[in-house]
Amino acid sequence: EETIGQAARLGYNVLSVSGGEPLLYPGLRAICVEARRQKMLVTLVTNGTVLDEARVAGISGVVDAIAISLDGEPERHNKMRRFPRAFQLMEKRLDLLRRASIPFGFVYTLTRENLSELEWAADFAVAQGAAMLQVHPIEAYGRALSDPALECLPDQEMATAQLVVECLRNIHDDKLTIQFDALNRDSLPVAPEEVAQWKTALDRGDRFLGEILSPLVIEEDGTVVPLRYGFPRSFAMGNLYRQTLDEMADGWMRRRSGAFFDLYRKTLMRVRRSQDRFVNMYQFLAGVASQ
């Protein structure tokens, strides 16, 4: 809870709790209450199968939204989850969220196998009363490194996915927000030459760390890394079991921020020159950082 207060003072305004399965964490309500006290937006990412009346009551009033993992139509979802009733349990328990008036959405992990089911996913989300569908292309991490069914989408299929998402946005314009987690190299959010301005603004105190370096990820062993789980340890802030977040942030800004912003600038330049039109920026950054 102390860490949450420190994060808020550093400019972080969202707490997202994800897995394993956050609904199984005994201290979940306490950290959500503290985050709300710090004026943070609080979200959870869950597979939905462990939702029950007690757990929904435990988060009611302290969670702003819940994101539920969705991997495709029922048979595919069950196969991906390695549980024959995963979809049916998740679907049945959505009613608990509706009755508690807790907004929810779906995180659709996009693969080559379920690309054809994107339209179904949007229709399902609307039918269930979801507020958002987040389409997240599979990353080369974890099971995706060894399971051929989880192969990353090539550029041509990513372009197809983007076109389908745009069509679905038009179809469901007033019912569902659809987010596509892929960056087109032709529309980078920042130019390489602008990155140096981040460092200057941070050093002057003109901008908070949370405005520039977000998200921060707390891994299960207490290590705090930028942007994504598993980011190379050479850019880690430190470990919460040994330092406070304030101490880590201060040390990182003095000793590692320059190298990180150089990494960001170099990565943006590589993205510009890349043959791939679509990139996962955090994955790309992690790859360059590990070289």
In short:
This protein is of the alpha/beta class and 291 residues long. The protein has helices at residues 2-9, 28-37, 53-59, 74-81, 86-99, 118-128, 155-171, 195-204, 209-212, 245-255, 257-273, 281-289; strands at 14-17, 41-46, 65-70, 104-110, 132-137, 177-180, 183-184, 216-218, 223-226, 238-239, 278-279.
Summarize the structure in words.
With 291 residues, the protein is α/β, with parallel strands linked by helices. 43% of the residues lie in helices and 16% in strands. It contains twelve helices and eleven strands. It has helices spanning 2-9, 28-37, 53-59, 74-81, 86-99, 118-128, 155-171, 195-204, 209-212, 245-255, 257-273, 281-289; strands at 14-17, 41-46, 65-70, 104-110, 132-137, 177-180, 183-184, 216-218, 223-226, 238-239, 278-279. Strands 1-2-3-4-5-6 form a six-stranded parallel beta sheet. The protein has a three-stranded antiparallel beta sheet with strand order 8-9-10, with helices on one face. α2 (28-37) links the parallel β1 (14-17) and β2 (41-46). α8 (195-204) packs antiparallel against α11 (257-273). The mean pLDDT is 93.
Order of adjacent strands in the largest pleated sheet = 1-2-3-4-5-6
Query: By helix and strand content, what is the structural category?
Result: alpha/beta
Our Rg estimate from Cα atoms comes to 20 Å
Content of β-strand: 15-25%
Number of helices: 12
First-to-last CA distance: 35 Å
Helix content: 40-55%
As residue ranges, the low-confidence spans are none
**Mean of residue pLDDT?**
93
Helix and strand string, N-terminal first? HEHEHEHHEHEHEEHHEEEHHEH
Total number of beta strands: 11
Largest sheet: 6 strands, parallel
Shape: globular
